[in-house]
Amino acid sequence: MAERMGFFTDTSVCIGCKACQVACKEWNQLPDDGFVFEANSYDNTGALGANTWRHVAFIEQSRPVPLEGSSDDGVERWLMSSDVCKHCTHAACLDVCPTGALFRTEFGTVVIQEDICNGCGYCVSACPYGVIERREDDGRAWKCTMCYDRQRGGLEPACAKACPTDSIQFGPLDELRERAEERVERLHADGQAEARLYGESPDDGVGGAGAFFLLLDQPEVYGLPPDPVVTTRDLPSMWRWAGAAALSVAGAVVVAFAGSGAFTGSRKGRRR
Amino acid sequence: MTRERSMVPEAEFRSYYGRPVIKAPVWHEPHMPAYLYAGGLSGVSSAMAVMAGFTGNDRLERTARVAAAIGAAAGTGFLIAELGRPERFLNMFRVFKPTSPMSMGSWLLAAQGGLSAVAATTELTRILPAVGDAAALATGLTGPLTATYTAVVVADTAVPAWHEAYRELPFLFAGSALASAGAVGMLATPRAQAGPARVMAVMGAAVESVASVVMERRLGLVGEPYRLGKAGGRMRAARVLTAGGGLLASVAGRSRTLTALSGLALTAGALCTRFGVLEAGRASAADPKYTIVPQRQRQGQPR
């Protein structure tokens, strides 16, 4: 296997240009999402989905950041963040896929083979980030491939290529993690105490994300789950409980026959 | 002054414009709940057929074998219809994948469907009865698993109302399946031979009722979708029908009307439970509260 590749999305330098979203649509030939007016921000896309593999979130905040020597109450803050599939180390979508359509590539990413997917929809409910979705007119599940085709050709993914501020950085995951640590330290030194990394730790509930982020507020503000856990972590436990229930069913049926005196002999014309 | 101007309210939780964090389950009505019901009916009917065979209850054995075969076939039909690409159903058998409950379930359902079809066919045609008996005996193993594995399919998701209920859901489905098979046994077998089916129906109704209450109580906030809105209505209807049906089954005696009413109520109750569980899952996914608040709580203080 080649080196594990990833995305580091540094939202502190995102300018909300949506070049990533457009580049992704263009390269991957994604269908349009219709003309929706959300009426809450510069974001009319809303969320990642079958036809949106990069999604830029916009959050306008008036936060109490006092300005020295001014009577002004504070400054406005405008958060922008380009969301994407996390390409989890422990990927629930990959675990639960019953056909093997989802697989782990040589770059450590998670990709759907569209000629295999039978549209069972299990991955959709399994993803703790709400990334993967079924295209209803097509019947199959779709999500970011981290431009598997471009990577195979030695190119960086379309979104990272198009990003004018290097908010989206693509590279070997280990390198990105180091770079992210340095960046967050610098931001802290500059007084941005709220800067934090999200998804960078191999000890989190998904074993670390292949696409991680530098955020300036709590993850849920960006629509991200604060503490995602791969659902299959509890699978052995689930099977134990289901096994116990199956045994109970078998036991109940035996008891039902014993209890109704069925073991006592002849049935024909038997009266209770 | 500055604090009051904050546009971020001191709410219980924060979110991105109230949008859901996870995607809602794509599974449809009536396909998915009907598949859960049919699988449960088939699985427990198989166990009933095995025991009826052991005890020489020929009439009940016949009913149970046929119900098991019809249930498995119907369940498979609903499962295929549910797929986005039904023509690719056979892709379910490309791999044998223990990490995927749906993969394991597909293999299980294939075994249960095949075996129960053989058992029912030989029962009705009297061709190769020994083969049929062997097949029926094997469904004694696949049956109870068929009735409960669906709880793992549902629980092994990021949907909070499903995932957090992974302890109770198998028992809820098991009770529901016992009641379903008991109900069919009661409805389709002469009273004199239907005694065990009746006991199963009563036991199933009791297990289903208890599991449902325990699940809701233990889940707390995450269990809210089982109490509210459309899902809440379905779960309440399920409880009334199941408890009523179970009670009727225990007092029906020789009354055909009461027996029929009981069987229908239990069947309706089992269906309501499955439709309610699907709806609760949807509601649980739609409101970011159920995803964010429990995650925050287990994390302790906000970072």
Entry keywords:
heterodimer; A: 272 residues; alpha+beta; two-stranded antiparallel ribbon; 7 helices; 10 strands; 19% strand; disordered C terminus; B: 303 residues; mainly alpha; 0% strand; globular
Number of helices of chain A: 7
Percent of sequence in beta strands of chain B:
under 5%
Pattern of helices and strands of chain B: HHHHHHHHHH
Task: Determine the number of helices of chain B (DSSP H or I, runs of at least 4 residues).
Answer: 10
Low-confidence stretches of chain B: 1-11
Low-confidence stretches of chain A: 263-272
Average of per-residue pLDDT values of chain A: 92
How many whole angstroms does the radius of gyration of chain A measure? Answer: 25 Å
Global mean pLDDT of chain B: 94
Task: Note down, in words, how this protein is organized.
The complex is a heterodimer of chains A (about 270) and B (about 300). Chain A has about 270 residues and is an alpha+beta fold. In chain A, about 25% of the residues lie in helices and about 20% in strands. Chain A contains seven helices and ten strands. Chain A has helices at about 20-30, 90-95, 120-125, 150, 160, 175-190, 235-260, and strands at about 5-10, 55-65, 75-85, 100-105, 110, 135, 140, 170, 195-200, 210-215. In chain A, the strands form four sheets. A four-stranded mixed beta sheet of chain A has the order 8-1-10-9. The longest helix of chain A has 25 residues, at about 235-260. The radius of gyration of chain A is 25 Å and the shape is globular. Chain A starts with a strand and ends in a 13-residue tail after the last helix. Chain B is mainly α. Chain B contains ten helices and no strands. Chain B has helices spanning about 30-55, 60-80, 100-125, 130-155, 160-165, 170-190, 195-220, 230-250, 255-285, 290-300. In chain B, helix 8 (about 230-250) packs antiparallel against helix 9. The chains are: A alpha+beta (about 270), B mainly alpha (about 300). Chains A and B meet through strand 2, helix 2, helix 3 and helix 7 of A and helix 1, helix 2, helix 3, helix 4 and helix 6 of B.
